[in-house]
């Protein structure tokens, strides 16, 4: 039992809230592990669909198991016609994360079977993972005046998302780069959005409600929204020779530099190391190393001034930007990957359910006399 005198861990920092087999972060060594597998191996040898299988089932799939999952995810891509119409009727100028949050919540109305909480929610986990690129893609296509897209069974999760956003066949390199980014973003232990998904699930609420909570949490600029702000920073800096001046001015105003720092990593985020290399590769392939060079300079200044290391969001924005993904879709793209982790955590929560309900240290008064309303001033 907690007592009011106990130390408050602001932001629940360093509080171990539960046991999990899904993801391990070694913040001192800069390691990230999904179900026993190092992120560096997964990023170089695996793919998003395989990683989703790993997160949901706790083991890598066989060839047949992976083929079955791929087939299933493609089948589940299609939105109900009424839902597609709803997305078309939402204000075209909306924040895409608001669209995503609303669409996930509304989808539950069409899929009552999938909303029953419990281990059978694996069906809902696959449905939501399959359908998120369709929601993001459809909203973007509609606001860009593009026709609706079919399910394109020949395309992977990453390839389909890119096709929907770019309205053209992605190259092999483009699909691979996005696939790597999705692998890197698929899970990250008890990050804020995953925690909010688990809190919702811990009340025995359903998976769609849990993912709705998670999307709302991911939206914030201190979490998933940081990579969009990195692009704003790059626009503001313009050329590498201005990086020092702009960054120092921001730091002197006590502003945060987006894409740097992390609650858990005390060294470089391994996902940033991998994405930095992919940012260079895609920049070279497109003959445009502008973002890469600018970010290298920003890294140098921030490290020199504050000793901070980059997190995953520093280079993800530049990679998405070079792929031609609009900046306001960076966080929704993040969600199309993290949904695999959110749903894996919700499934784990259902298996060992315990209501998540911490305590607060009360710091207000306790003995105020009740004053009748007419006597109050
Ligand atoms: N820029 C400038 N200063 C920073 C930054 C930053 N990006 N990050 C931390 N600091 C400083 C703080 O100002 C504080 O300094 P002080 O002690 O002099 O006041 C110190 O470092 C500790 O900061 P906290 O906020 O206590 O550290 P916390 O663990 O809560 O921060 C966070 C983690 C929120 C990610 C923070 O580093 C941040 O705001 N970064 C920028 C946003 C960002 O990139 N978010 C993406 C995270 S990765 C993800 O969600 C996918």
What report would you give on this structure?
This protein has 377 residues and is an all-alpha fold. The chain contains 16 helices and three strands. The longest helix has 22 residues, at 122-143. It binds acetyl coenzyme *A. Acetyl coenzyme *A is lined by residues 11, 222-223, 226, 256-263, 306, 308, 311-313.
Distance between the termini: 40 Å
Shape: globular
Q: What is the mean pLDDT?
A: 94
Task: Work out the radius of gyration.
Answer: 22 Å
Q: Helix count?
A: 16
The arrangement of helices and strands along the chain is EEEHHHHHHHHHHHHHHHH
Strand order of the largest sheet: 1-2-3
Please identify the structural class as seen in this structure. Answer: mainly alpha
Helix content: 55-70%
Bound molecules: acetyl coenzyme *A
Topology:
Blueprint: E1 23-26, E2 31-34, E3 37-38, H1 39-45, H2 48-57, H3 63-75, H4 81-89, H5 96-110, H6 122-143, H7 157-166, H8 172-185, H9 192-202, H10 207-218, H11 226-237, H12 243-252, H13 270-285, H14 290-306, H15 312-323, H16 330-351
Antiparallel strand pairs: 1-2, 2-3
Helix pairs in contact: 1-8, 2-16, 3-6, 5-6, 5-10, 6-7, 6-16, 7-8, 8-13, 8-15, 8-16, 9-10, 9-16, 10-16, 11-15, 12-14, 13-15
The structure holds acetyl coenzyme *A.
